[in-house]
Amino acid sequence: MGQALQRAAQWTSAKGGSGGKLEFTKLNEDLLNAIMNWVDGFGSKYPEEAKLVFKSPLTWITTLRPDKLSGGFTEKGEEMVSTQTSEKDGTPMLTLKKVSTNEYSVTSMSLECCESVLRMAGDQKLMEVRSCLEANRDPATKMLGDRFATVEGDDNSIYRFIEEITKEIEQVAKQEGWRRWSQRDRREEVAT
């Protein structure tokens, strides 16, 4: 997803140390609509997968305001946080945080939450998707982890992934072998 976005989207040049913004072109609008439609129907097609917690959250400046939030949120200082939390560490799955007087940021930990943001955004869905992608240039990395990061040139991430799995298998095999060997030694000691 990150590579496809980098290659297909048309970006403005970076200014003042910030990454560029998505240009207002027909190609980008089509891309944003495709992503919006994919996210918007994801939870109904894949309800279990939609609940999977991202490796790191997607965070972006939002058009949402606290009055747009519907059910399942509590106020926590300057933030509105979802009552739904991550099982791993108790982090709220969705957070709306006041950044300045009229500006808020949203932090989402799952596709289910991203879909909720789009629902609450109403006719501003496309702006939400645009803001999210501009703030998260490689969303697949945030969702799935660094092994899915966009890389320039040849993409050998599948080989790195295979190596990682192979190392894990070898470690388990060594541990199992050590256990069996030590159990066999103990049996031999008892027999003598």
Describe the protein.
About 50% of the residues lie in helices and about 15% in strands. The protein is an alpha+beta fold. Helix 2 packs across helix 4, helix 2 (about 25-45) packs across helix 5 (about 125-135) and helix 4 (about 110-120) crosses helix 5 (about 125-135). It folds into two domains: about 1-150, no CATH class; about 155-190.
Concise summary:
The chain is an alpha+beta fold and 192 residues long. 49% of the residues lie in helices and 14% in strands.
Describe the structure using short key phrases.
192 residues, alpha+beta, 2 domains, five-stranded antiparallel sheet, 5 strands, 14% strand, elongated
Give the overall silhouette. elongated
* Coarse structural class: alpha+beta
Tell me the fraction of residues in β-strands, as a range: 5-15%
Mean pLDDT: 82
Give Rg in angstroms.
23 Å
Largest sheet: 5 strands, antiparallel
Q: Give the % helix.
A: 40-55%
* Widest sheet: strand ordering: 1-5-4-3-2
| SSE pattern, N- to C-terminal | HHHEEEEEHHHH
The total strand number stands at 5
**Whole-number count of domains:** 2
Low-confidence stretches are: none
Question: What is the element layout, followed by pairings?
Answer:
Elements lengths: L1 H7 L17 H20 L1 H4 L7 E5 L10 E4 L2 E4 L11 E7 L2 E6 L2 H11 L3 H11 L3 H6 L12 H35 L1
Antiparallel strand pairs: 1-5, 2-3, 3-4, 4-5
